[in-house]
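agent> fetching stored inputs for the glyoxylic acid docking request
agent> found them:
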Amino acid sequence: MDTMDRLKKDLVETGKFGRTPPRRIERYDQLDPEKGVTRPAGTEENRKVRDYAVERMREAGLTVKIDKVGNIFGRKEGSKTNTGTVMSGSHLDSVINGGMFDGALGVFGAIEAIRRMNDEGFENERPLEVAVFTAEEGSAFSPTILASSVLVGKMGVDEAWNRKNAMGQTLGEVLENIGYKGSFERSLDDVEYFVEMHVEQGPILDKEGLSVGIVENISGMMWIMLTILGSENHAGTTPMRIRKDALVAAADIVSFVNKRANDLVEKLSAAIVGTVGRLNVFPNVGNIVPGKVEMVIDIRDVVQENMASLKNETLKAAKDIENKYGVDIRTQLTSLHLPVTLSNEVINMIDSSARQVGIVPKRMNSGAGHDCLNMVKRTKAGMIFVPSVNGISHAPLEWTNWEDIEKGAKVLTQTLKNLSRL
Ligand code: GLV
Ligand code: MN
Ligand code: MN
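agent> prediction call returned; pasting tokens
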């Protein structure tokens, strides 16, 4: 099997996990727009993809260890001692109904890079390590990029273990259930470089017909949870004038976030985005005036002050809306990751490595969050992007062409080889 087939096989095989029914998908036209992959952290489907990755790591000669929050590390020692480790990887959990490349590409791409080095008899001087981070997506356990937050010391192990999913299970519990609550304590003191390959999840590379991007900045991510308390009552008998309709208030907030983010794109920053993607309406019954709504507002930008502007304006608008409809609005900041700039040294190394294998990369920013956003706090970190067809991700129609995946794999392999000899 040639090298591309090997990486393609890993992605196609693991693309079955969390898909109903579990189907091998090798081409874009085989995708079902309604049936993506669902393998949130700690589920049985998440265990299957983890087991598959661990098997591939061991086959590639890596020594595998699991830490307390389920992060997986597969290590290959180097020929010299006392030189900092070069780490590469991403995540294997998914959003609900997402794509088969988000996260998986960075994990299997890193394993494939090691296999290519093994095939060539390449001698790495620094140790190389493949990492799989737990609960990147935030769709089962919030905040997002959870276990890499523990790894870099932003969050304690107990705090992470105690986070609960929608079923009320704790992260500690589900990791135990799937056999991934380890005991390894991975200090990052020896890790000098981190490189994550990922699908862009946006439209830029695809639109420009380019195959490889290098990330310079990653947008910060903020989640504000709003609970709007109105007055639940009969839809047929409650006069319009005396209603306290929580959903009507929520609708104004949804519109405000969208409109204001659009204005700020013109005035402040092309990268700013504001989204309400989650709305729980109570009791969610056709003939009852909604008494309560919970919503999550997601705000992102590459500049922290811009995120704060949109947040402050939204909270001010919420106050006005509260008065207008006579509802009570409670707000809670449930997730905050500030924007980061990645390592210049790694950016330049990815750039020269890409050119070495005949690829001209594009410098760009990432609007999506990644574990790299955490890793850059403790290591010199960088990211390689490959295109997302039509800019789609976090959806069943997420796709990346195999030729682009091969180019990304070439750039990642060359980058890791070069870093391992620095
Ligand atoms: C994580 O994938 C995010 O960007 O929300
Ligand atoms: Mn991802
Ligand atoms: Mn994602």
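agent> quick read of the result: Residues 95, 102, 137, 394 surround manganese (II) ion (ligand 3) (CB under 6 Å).
agent> awaiting further instructions
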